[in-house]
C-alpha cells in the first residue's frame, strides 16, 4: 500500500502506477539515475577529505563524535538499502561508508 493510501484511505487511485505518487514503469530508470547521481555527489564529497587525511596523517580538525554519528548513519542507511533492495542506496552508502570509516580509523589511530 502506498503512503498516499495510508495518509488518505478514501483516495481512489492510491497504488495505481502514475497516480497518487506511484511512479510509472518508464520513470523507474530516472529515479535510479537520480539515486546514482546523489550517491556520486555524496561519495565524491568525501574523497578529498580522505586523500588529505592519508597524505597528512592528521585528523585533528575532524570531530570524533560527528564522524562516529556519520558512520552510524551510513551503516543504517546501507542496511535500509539492502532490505529494500535499492541498488543506488546500497552503492552510495556502501562507498561513502568505506571512505568515512577510513577517516574514522585514522582518527582513532592517529588522534
Automatic annotation (TrEMBL):
<protein>
    <submittedName>
        <fullName>SemiSWEET transporter</fullName>
    </submittedName>
</protein>
<feature type="transmembrane region" description="Helical">
    <location>
        <begin position="89"/>
        <end position="108"/>
    </location>
</feature>
<feature type="transmembrane region" description="Helical">
    <location>
        <begin position="62"/>
        <end position="83"/>
    </location>
</feature>
<feature type="region of interest" description="Disordered">
    <location>
        <begin position="1"/>
        <end position="21"/>
    </location>
</feature>
<dbReference type="Pfam" id="PF04193">
    <property type="entry name" value="PQ-loop"/>
</dbReference>
<keyword id="KW-0812">Transmembrane</keyword>
<dbReference type="InterPro" id="IPR006603">
    <property type="entry name" value="PQ-loop_rpt"/>
</dbReference>
<dbReference type="InterPro" id="IPR047662">
    <property type="entry name" value="SemiSWEET"/>
</dbReference>
<keyword id="KW-1133">Transmembrane helix</keyword>
<feature type="compositionally biased region" description="Basic and acidic residues">
    <location>
        <begin position="1"/>
        <end position="11"/>
    </location>
</feature>
<keyword id="KW-0472">Membrane</keyword>
Amino acid at each position: 500500500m502506498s503512503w498516499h493510501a495510508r495518509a488518505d484511505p478514501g483516495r481512489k487511485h492510491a497504488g495505481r502506477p502514475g497516480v497518487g505518487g506511484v511512479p510509472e514503469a518508464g520513470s523507474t530508470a530516472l529515479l535510479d539515475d537520480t539515486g546514482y547521481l546523489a550517491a556520486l555527489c555524496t561519495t565524491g564529497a568525501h574523497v578529498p577529505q580522505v586523500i588529505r587525511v592519508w597524505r597528512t596523517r592528521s585528523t585533528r580538525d575532524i570531530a570524533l563524535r560527528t564522524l562516529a554519528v556519520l558512520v552510524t548513519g551510513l551503516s543504517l542507511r546501507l542496511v535500509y538499502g539492502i532490505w529494500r533492495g535499492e541498488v543506488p542506496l546500497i552503492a552510495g552508502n556502501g562507498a561513502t561508508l568505506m571512505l568515512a570509516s577510513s577517516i574514522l580509523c585514522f582518527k582513532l589511530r592517529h588522534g
